Amino acid sequence: MSSRSEAITCEFCIALQVRVLYCITGASSLVLKPKTTDDVSRIMAHCDKRHLAVVPQGGNTGLVGGSVPVFDEVVLSTALMNKILDLDEISGVVTCQAGCILETLDDHVAERGLAMPLDLGAKASCHIGGNVSTSAGGLRLIRYGSLHGSVLGLEAVLASGEVLDCMSGMRKDNTGYDLKQLLIGSEGTLGVVTKVAILCPSRPAAVNVALLACNSFADVLKTLQKGKAMLSEILSAFELIDSASMMAVEKYLHLRNPLSSGEFYCLIETSGSHAGHDEEKLTAFLDSVMEEGSVCDGTVAQGITQQKDLWALRERVAEALLREGYTYKYDVSLPTRHFYDIVVDMRRHLAGAAVLGCYGYGHVGDGNVHLNVTTRQYDADVGHRIEPYVFEWVRGRHGSISAEHGLGFKKRDFIHYSKAASAVAWMKRFKTLMDPNGILNPYKTLPE
Ligand code: FAD
Ligand code: S2G
Ligand code: ZN
């Protein structure tokens, strides 16, 4: 898996994160950096007894304010919990501490012909414990599925300091309730993830990356369906960049779009075990979509450098939009046929507002669109024009108001746009059961 993260600098992650957290500036006076599960257990027991609030923090690349204190919560960083504990090369299961950086893990398993089952632009900074706690999606979910499937085992420390041992390297384990699933995506509100066992697929021997131009979103959908059918098991990413986003990366980052025209751009990646076989399938697919006319132009990267260049066009959209101004970010899941309708409708809805741009890009292969609206600076009127309109829009199409970034601080009050009241009530019961003093990441994920 080509590490494209050079293009995504750590500074950018911080800039993006800071911009997103425009309205949150905590006042923590204490950051703790435990090294072991036992350290975490003692810290939590101490804090629980004294009702001291704790924010678990991984790589701090989250985009919804989940890892940032709201007031004076103690920050518990996993930065020093970065040991890789085991790698079973036959089953492909890597066991590590929660503070391992995703890219470091990927480099480590690559030496044994394996790959991490997720890839995101923040890979150089984010921790696997943070990935698990946000149930991160990323660029390859279409191929390797969600962390709810690839995480086989988990160890966490509960608010009381009790260690919850759900560690296992087994793909099948039907013995009682699967408690680790509660922690995956719990954003630090139910426990501090301290260890993870995750299933790594074989590293692909052959990778192709293509950029295709389409003249309509209907053509994008046709191309996606054809891609899933003709590329099938070798399809590893299918991402969308709309023309506005493409213009932004050209204008603000001076990246080059190798295609002459198009309303939409599909970035497609295949990953397989045999270059000849994969190229044959990819060529047949490209011939078919060009003949059919759903694709009007396209290019296939010749070598790693061109693959990175094409990926940068997609992965650096958020960075480009930051250069334009303040960014209102929405990470939503929709039925794929509506994936771009929200962008078209939002542009209409915001006509006349003090908006610089309205952008749609993201993981069209799994129905997760990143809708971003930019203004010169933070503008409350624009914010009120967008919310709750955007959440009502998503609810109206039975989508999710947070596909992969979580709810954190910024979106916790909107959970009811995607979850039934009974479900939220049970979430609160579990939260009270597992954290009776409410010290773990208060003000996050669940509404008061
Ligand atoms: P943090 O930001 O430190 O924390 C995130 C949340 O998890 C917080 O609520 C925190 O309290 C909790 N947490 C962290 N560690 C633990 C732990 N050990 N135990 C319990 N709780 C914990 N996200 C995607 O899903 N897909 C993408 O494609 C994607 N692309 C991105 C691209 C860029 C450039 C950037 C900056 C971010 C991107 N993100 C993406 C968002 C972010 O990287 C993910 O949410 C990531 O999983 C966060 O990991 P982290 O270690 O930085 O966690
Ligand atoms: C992506 C993260 C960056 C953003 O690029 O896939 O999940 O905020 C996003 O759009
Ligand atoms: Zn994303």
From TrEMBL:
InterPro entries: FAD-bd_oxidored_4_C, FAD-bd_PCMH, FAD-bd_PCMH-like_sf, FAD-bd_PCMH_sub1, FAD-bd_PCMH_sub2, FAD-linked_Oxase-like_C, FAD-oxidored/transferase_4, Oxid_FAD_bind_N. Its EC number is 1.1.99.39. Catalyzes the oxidation of D-2-hydroxyglutarate (D-2-HG) to alpha-ketoglutarate. Also catalyzes the oxidation of other D-2-hydroxyacids, such as D-malate (D-MAL) and D-lactate (D-LAC). Exhibits high activities towards D-2-HG and D-MAL but a very weak activity towards D-LAC. It comes from Priapulus caudatus (Priapulid worm). SUPFAM superfamilies: FAD-binding/transporter-associated domain-like, FAD-linked oxidases, C-terminal domain. Keywords: FAD, Flavoprotein, Oxidoreductase. Its cofactor is FAD. The keyword Isomerase does not apply. Belongs to the FAD-binding oxidoreductase/transferase type 4 family. This is D-2-hydroxyglutarate dehydrogenase, mitochondrial. Residues 24-203 form the FAD-binding PCMH-type domain. It catalyses: (R)-malate + A = oxaloacetate + AH2. It is an enzyme of class 1 (oxidoreductase).
